[in-house]
Each structure stands twice: as C-alpha cells, then as structure tokens.
Write a structure and sequence with these properties.
Elements lengths: L10 E7 L3 E6 L3 E7 L2 E4 L5 E4 H6 L8 E4 L2 E2 L2 E2 L2 H16 L7 E7 L5 H13 L2 E8 H8 L10 E6 L4 E7 L2 E8 L3 H16 L1 E2 L2 H11 L10 E8 L5 E7 H25 L2 H10 L1 E4 L8 H9 L3 E3 L6 H10 L2 H7 E2 L1
Parallel strand pairs: 1-9, 9-10, 11-17, 17-18
Antiparallel strand pairs: 1-2, 2-3, 4-5, 4-6, 7-8, 10-19, 11-12, 12-13, 14-15, 15-16
Helix pairs in contact: 2-3, 4-10, 5-6, 5-7
Length: about 350
C-alpha cells in the first residue's frame, strides 16, 4: 500500500468511530467534532431527521414515527446505510463546508473486528467521499494518544473501555503482542443500572437517566464519601411518575458484574503476556483510557486486584482520536500500524 504524505491542499481527518461517540481530529485544527453516534430516522420515509447531539436529545422523547438508532453496535457497523449517513454528517460538519469534499481518512476500529466488518467501515467511508481510507487499531491509536513509547521493544499495556467494547492490549515495537476484546462497555453499564432500578424499585428509567446516574454516583470501589441521588422514572405497578432516592453503594452493586468482566479480561491479558514484556508492565503498569475509564475509583479497584501501577490518561474520551491524528503527520509510523 502506498502511503502518500498528507499535505495541506487536501482534507485529512482521523475519525474515532465509536459505539457511543464519534470524535474527529483534523490536521492543524485538533479535535473539531465530538458527538454521540446516534441518528434519528423517520420510519415512513426511512430518512434521517437528526444526528449526533440533537438525536441524543430525542432518546425516549420521540413519537412512534421517529426512532433514534445507534448504527454501531459493539464498536462495529450494525446498520450500513445509517452509518454512511452518519459519516457524511460528521465529515460535512467537521470540514465546515457547504459541499462534501473528498478526504483522506484514518478510521479507528476495534481489534476483534471481522473482515466483513472492516469492509463495511471502508465502504461507508468511501460512500461518504473518502478517497484514501486507512484503518488503524483503536488500541494502537489510544496508546499513541496517551504518549506510550509504542515503537520501543518494551511492553505497554492499555485498557480502553468504550461504549460497546473493552479492549486490553499489550503493544511492543509498533505491533500488538496480545489483545483481548470483550463486548461490554459503557452502554452495558447503563443497561445494568436500568435493570437494577426496575428489579429493586419497580421503576422504569430511560437510557439518558441511567447514564446520568452512572456519571454522577457510579463507582467501581467504595467512595471516600458515599453519595445519593433522586431518580425519577415511571412506576411499573401504578403507571405514574415516581421518584426514589438511590445511593452510590446500590449503583456499585448494579455495576459489579460489568466491572468483574473488565477485571477478568485484564487478568487474562496479564497471564498471557510473554515474561519479558510482563516485567516491563510490572514496572510501568496499565494505562486506562476510553469513556468507561471515567467510572469513579475504577483505577483504585484495578490497583487493588493487580497490584500494578494504574494511570488514568489525561483525556480518556479523546485518546483514540488524538493518537490517530498524530499518525496524519507520521506516514512512516502509519505504514507500520495500518490494518490490511
């Protein structure tokens, strides 16, 4: 594959096409776009009526004729046409142009992706007017984004918790030595909270409420001071609006299985890492990134379980896009890490 040097006369962008959010980096401008990966579709016309943040505002508030769709499930394309429409919107808004311009794109993908899913990503990007598409593993991009020395012959472990997938990856010499991808992430945390509230309080809450609870009082390890929150929903017995007061200990219980799944993936990765690289990881520890890394005290829980240093990246939500953005000006490194 030929790797042209990216020049200023063309539009080069790096896209973190995530299950929960899509983030875009443009050379010379930095992060220009960060919105939810959601498209609201009109059922009769099958046409999109809203994208991104506007579509997310509609969750749980639409008439039957309009359905908010997440076209990416577990980090991969579940709906090709809707993904294509989302990409066109993303590119159009990122470039701030009245018309769509053909662009070079680096798109980040999860490591567990199949050949069919890779083709779907490439085809969506091409349909959205990309003329060069480079696929890069999310874990590699995240590692570059957080400043890990991935080109050195030493072990670096990164734990990336996204909306649909959690990936534990060991990287050395610009390549992946070991990777484990599990299809749980931030969205499953929200769903676990919805089910817990339904089971314990007979209260039905929506996706946005569950996400708000997770961000506000969710945790993976006891907090210094436990917190409380009033949760509003619909009483499943009476059918009327109801408010219950919940605490952070309950939400920790609701999230316990998801957190256990993430810890198990880390344990497996540590067991399967070659001994020479294990000693590097024992010294450097694990870097935590992705939106799910923001769950309170997850770093403390991991430190307790693994006895390793755990570092939370400076900007967990942006690490992948920032790393992919750095590859725009480093064609030699891009040629080493691009996925065929």
């Amino acid at each position: 594959m030929h790797f042209p040097s990216f020049g200023l006369l063309t539009n080069e962008m790096a896209i973190d096409l995530g299950t929960a959010n899509t983030v875009v980096y443009i050379q010379g401008k930095g992060i220009v776009f960060n919105e939810p990966s959601i498209v609201a579709i009109h059922l009769k016309t099958k046409e999109p009526v809203a994208f991104g943040s506007e579509a997310k505002q509609m969750l749980g508030r639409t008439p039957e004729s309009i359905v908010p769709i997440r076209p990416l499930k577990d980090g991969v394309i579940a709906d090709f046409k809707v993904t294509e429409a989302l990409l066109q919107y993303v590119i159009h808004k990122s470039l701030n142009r009245g018309r769509l311009v053909r662009s070079k794109m680096i798109i980040c993908i999860p490591s567990g992706i199949t050949e069919v899913e890779k083709k779907a990503v490439r085809d969506s990007a091409t349909s959205a007017r990309a003329y060069h598409v480079y696929l890069v593993d999310e874990a590699i991009a995240a590692a570059i984004g957080v400043g890990l020395p991935i080109e050195e012959p030493s072990g670096n472990m990164i734990l990336d918790i996204g909306g649909g997938t959690t990936e534990v990856t060991v990287i050395s010499l610009s390549g992946i030595v070991y990777s484990k991808s599990i299809r749980i992430g931030g969205n499953e945390m929200d769903e676990a909270i919805i089910q817990y509230v339904k089971r314990k309080y007979n209260l039905l809450i929506g996706e946005r409420t569950a996400e708000y609870i997770k961000i506000t009082i969710g945790s993976a390890h006891p907090l210094h001071k436990e917190q409380e929150l009033d949760v509003k929903g619909r009483d499943l017995i009476e059918g009327i609006p109801k408010t219950v007061r919940m605490n952070s200990e309950e939400i920790r219980e609701a999230l316990s299985e998801i957190v256990a799944g993430i810890i198990e993936a880390v344990r497996t990765a540590l067991e399967r890492t070659p001994p020479e690289l294990s000693s590097d990881i024992a010294e450097r520890g694990i870097v935590l990134t992705g939106g799910g890394a923001l769950l309170k005290n997850l770093d403390l829980r991991l430190r307790e379980v693994t006895s390793l240093p755990i570092t939370l990246s400076d900007d967990p939500l942006m690490s992948v896009a920032l790393g992919a953005g750095k590859l725009i000006s480093r064609p030699n490194l891009l040629s080493k890490v691009v996925v065929d």
